[in-house]
Amino acid sequence: MTEPKYIVVGNSSDDPFAIDVAFAMGQGEDIADLISMKRFANSEFCPRFISDEQDFSEIGNKLSGKSIIIVSTSSLVMSRQSLAMRNLMIARAAKENGAAEVILVEPDLYYSAQDRGPRVELGDTEVERDLKDLKKFDGQLFTAKLYAQMLKLAGVDRVLTVHNHSFSVQAMFSEVFDGKFHNLIPYDIYVDYLLNSDIVDYEDEGEGLALCAPDKGAREFVKEMFARLGLKKAKFVLLDKERTSERQVEVKIHEESETKLDDIQGHDIVLFDDMVRTGSTVVKSCQLLKQVNPGKTVFALTHFYASEEGRVKMANTAIDEILTLNTIPTVLNRDIQGRLRKKMVVLKIEKWLALNLCRILNLPQPDMGDSLYSIDMSSKNTRWRRKIWLSEQLKALNEG
Q1: At what angle do helices 16-24 and 350-360 cross, to 10 degrees?
Q2: Which burial class, exposed, middle or buried, applies to 396 when counting CB atoms under 10 A from its CB (0-12, 13-18, 19+)?
Q3: pLDDT (average), residues 345-371
Q4: Could you tell me the residue range of the domain that residue 65 belongs to?
Q5: Are 354 and 329 in contact (CB under 8 A)?
Q6: Chain center to CA of 105
């Protein structure tokens, strides 16, 4: 039997996300049987790719010709700093044991919020940086660039991430990794769920549905979503925000928005963004939209790493439902969701990520079954309860 060229590991051997990606790619061996996450008594980490203890041939070259895929996600028990260091050491261990290639798959790319430094040359931006922006980073480092350079030095050859928000990070990672940086945008997941679930209600060709971009950063993403949905009678709303302080924003209809507030009265509205931290912008935006008595307001986002403050804010009745992905797997924890579990649905993207990874690496396409993703929803969610009720009614009808 031919040994696989590609080996999937995680930055912890029991990471469910990494295990699911490996399984979706057809890897039969368990990650824990491929790599040992050793830790010495002094707490120092020492990863070791497992080999037969009785085999003394090809010492230091057991991974010759193989490509190692490190799947790196956040954790409830380890800091991102610790996980980042693990990535570096696993990559170096792979290369020092003969690996031909190391690929980092990090759905929520670490340090992306620290995407520039205190000087003009420390970070490319889409607009010219003014003194206010430079002062914001005064005294700190361009951490994302340091992380990229350390990954490269450790032996990482290619990086995949999901829906990265920073133009500066994308440009810099592409440069450091000689174009082998892939920012995967989950359009097809959102399109599939909006078209094939009951999260929103609309008539033929999208009449009664509106998509909303809360700020300039989300505008191009939402425009592309609008185009891919193909619902000609749906509406597209642009909002604009002005940050008055670190945690305070003011939201209004953007002057370039062809759709005004009165035009979306009674519509189900889906507001898209790449991430949420404090929740100030989304709550303010939904409160503005609620002024025209919409049917429903849904907040769809890729990276859910809201603080406790953010979760409290998003419990506001202005948001009817939250649709997110598990790029930060801790979102699946019901305690992390807190009161939001009543209006939250999580789309698990491991299969979709494995499919895209195979495409990029020119590998045979794995069988994805009926869907690119699986759905995680609390039984407290009203739509879950409605599905159970409808299922019971249908069963009773068939039996009758």
Answers
A1: 50
A2: exposed
A3: 91
A4: 6-184
A5: no
A6: 11
